[in-house]
Design goal:
With 162 residues, the chain is mainly alpha-helical. Helix content is 71%, strand content 0%. It has 6 helices and no strands. It starts with 25 loop residues before the first helix and ends with a helix.
């Protein structure tokens, strides 16, 4: 759980989904990594979560994947508010990896436990927006390919008719 005393946050409240798109700086991530590594071989859940949280917010895909693995390991032995934060950041991580089905699964779990959780509702809407945006981009790409194909076929047909 990222708290007031955490090296990367002044807030006790988790950010809403849109803020999760702002990547963590490498300097901030290094602070979390050093704290985590200093506690090896048995880091606390807090140090593990903080480092995983940072990895999920990293601009690097491999960091996000590592953060997911760490959060999933924590998920199996956590409950209550801590579990809520884990589910929230697992959903964010999967959105950042464009794995929307998995993201929806985690946000659904979170909303089952806390149906009035505004952060989870915001995250759910954010996932829907991402799916819609990527769907429109995909449709535009397919449409562009189809149009190019039609032009090529049209050119061939014209040459054959001459």
């Amino acid at each position: 759980m990222v708290t007031k005393d955490s090296p990367v946050s002044d807030e006790k409240v988790l950010p809403y989904a849109a803020e999760a798109e702002v990547p963590i700086t490498m300097e901030q991530l290094n602070v979390l990594r050093k704290t985590f590594e200093a506690e090896l071989p048995s880091p606390t859940e807090q140090a593990t979560f903080d480092y995983a949280w940072g990895l999920v917010r990293s601009p690097r895909k491999d960091d996000i994947v590592t953060g997911v693995k760490m959060l999933q390991a924590l998920q199996t032995r956590s409950s209550g508010a801590f579990l809520r934060e884990i589910l929230y950041y697992l959903a964010i991580a999967h959105v950042r990896l464009s794995q929307y089905t998995q993201a929806k699964g985690y946000v659904t779990q979170l909303l089952r436990v806390e149906p009035n959780n505004m952060q989870a509702k915001s995250l759910d809407r954010w996932i829907d927006q991402k799916v819609e945006q990527e769907g429109l981009v995909g449709m535009a790409i397919v449409g562009g390919i189809a149009a190019a194909g039609a032009l090529v076929v049209g050119g061939i047909v014209r040459k054959l008719l001459r």
